[in-house]
Amino acid sequence: MISPDLKIAIAESSLILRLGMEAVLHQLTGLRIQVTEVGEGESLAESLHICHPDVLLVNPVMIGGSVGIKQLKNECDALHLKYVALLSVQVPAEMLRLYDEQISIYDTPDAIKQKLDVLCNEMSSEDGADDEQQTLSSREKEIVVCVVKGMTNREIADKLFLSTHTVITHRRNIARKLQIHSASGLTIYAIVNKLVDLSEISVNGEK
Questions:
Q1: Beta bridge partners of 9
Q2: Which strands form 101-104's sheet, in the order they lie side by side?
Q3: pLDDT band at residue 102 using 50, 70 and 90 as cut-offs
Q4: To bridge 84 with a disulfide, which of 101, 107, 175, 201 should be the other Cys (CB 3.0-4.6 Å)?
Q5: What is the pLDDT of residues 26-77, one digit of tens each?
Q6: Which burial class, exposed, middle or buried, applies to 27 when counting CB atoms under 10 A from its CB (0-12, 13-18, 19+)?
Q7: Is the pTM value of this prediction over 0.90?
Q8: What are the CA-CA distances from residue 135 to residues 74, 80, 127, 130, 177 (Å)?
Q9: Whether 186 contacts 175, CB under 8 Å
Q10: CATH topology of domain 5-130
Q11: Domain ranges in the chain?
Q12: Is 138-206 in the same CATH topology as 5-130?
């Protein structure tokens, strides 16, 4: 079931594009949308922590391409955001692979609403999955997978673009939430909850 309320942050340096997109969003039927505008990439993470949106509609160029979106996801991991690329010009496909969806300024209102409906349904499904998996965040699930594969804290930090201290903190939170304090216990949890395939474990065990 789609929530009638959706909080969207629009991060775009062009005032005309921000206002235009906001006007289109408010015209969409079936959703009550609250919009926050962000005009500067430097203050984006801080703004997101203040307004707690469900969806971030952001110009990929504004935040520095692939590197920028990786850094932003690390800084805003706890917010459980959906990241949508707002496209006004053509950008390389590599720059878009970390986004959940893409919306072009040439999309019709119906197309935009359809994409938002899909995102809303995904968020509802993820909320249910979080309940089933003891409310682990997406980042914590990634770290569980890394631990199960035998990676060290340093290796996990390098892979996920985090500090070692942040990885250790996540691992403490995982242990607290799941009440699992061993790698073997996490392995069973990861297999049962389909975070890893059994073949990945056997391959790792042969190394």
A1: 36, 56
A2: 32-38, 5-11, 55-58, 82-87, 101-104
A3: very high
A4: 101
A5: 998 887 899 999 988 777 888 888 888 999 999 999 988 788 898 888 888 7
A6: exposed
A7: no
A8: 18, 11, 8, 4, 8
A9: no
A10: Rossmann fold (3.40.50)
A11: 5-130, 138-206
A12: no
Q: What is the pLDDT of residues 144-198, one digit of tens each?
A: 999 999 999 999 999 998 888 889 988 988 988 888 888 888 998 898 888 988 7
Q: How many CB atoms lie within 10 A of CB 31?
A: 17
Around Cβ 169, how many Cβ atoms within 10 Å? 12
Judge whether 190 and 148 are in contact, CB under 8 Å. Answer: yes
Three-state DSSP string of the chain: CCCCEEEEEEECCCHHHHHHHHHHHHHCCCCEEEEEEECCHHHHHHHHHHHCCCEEEECCCCCCHHHHHHHHHHHCHHHCCEEEEEECCCCCHHHHCCCCEEEECCCCHHHHHHHHHHHHHHHHHHHHHHHHCCCCCHHHHHHHHHHHCCCCHHHHHHHHCCCHHHHHHHHHHHHHHHCCCCHHHHHHHHHHCCCCCHHHHHHHHHC
Pair 66, 126: CB distance under 8 Å: no
Rounded Cα distance between 144 and 148, Å, is 6
Record the tokens describing residue 190, joined without a space. Answer: 């990861």
Structure-block tokens of residue 29 = 């039927």
Residue 42 and residue 14 in contact, taking contact as beta carbons nearer than 8 Å: no
**What is the residue whose two structure tokens read 């070692």?**
164
Which residues 6+ apart lie within 8 Å of 114 measured at CB? none
